[in-house]
Amino acid sequence: MKIKPATRHIKDLCKFLGDEYEVVIIDFEYVIYRNFGNGYEIEVSGANTNSKNKPVTIFLWCTAPMNVIGCINGVPQNDIAECIDFMYIFSEYYKDAAPKTQEKLLELFQREWTDIKQFYMNA
After folding, report:
1. For the chain, which end, N or C, has fewer CB atoms within 10 Å of the first or last residue's CB respectively?
2. For residues 46 and 69, what is the distance between their CA atoms, to the nearest angstrom?
3. pLDDT of residue 107
């Protein structure tokens, strides 16, 4: 399978987000990646485009065991940093709280993010 080359846009967006971020290939796609260093990492999918208006999907992963905790679809590119900040705060808060199952963590994440999205949509 041929992978579309990394666009200037994804590289610029990664640079804008900061030194903690890098452009990597995951699942045959260039994505923006950051390891939070607390057992969680994020992946920004859909940013390898020339469009600044195309929404992205941001995944929050647990690194051990490797498991997707949740994803947020349709994030406007100008909201990526805020969304990732929320994911980082969420991961820091729950890393030691250790809900009994990944399903519980996913449920908490989705409920919290739904509230945040509603706030942004009504602002």
Report:
1. N
2. 18
3. 72
Phi-psi map region of 62: left, alpha, beta (phi>0 left; psi -120 to 50 alpha): beta
pTM for this entry: 0.82
Which two three-digit tokens encode residue 35? Answer: 């390891």
Closest CA to 46 of 85, 19, 72, 21: 72
The CA distance from 34 to 17, in Å, is 10
Handedness of CA 41, 44, 45, 49 (dihedral sign): negative
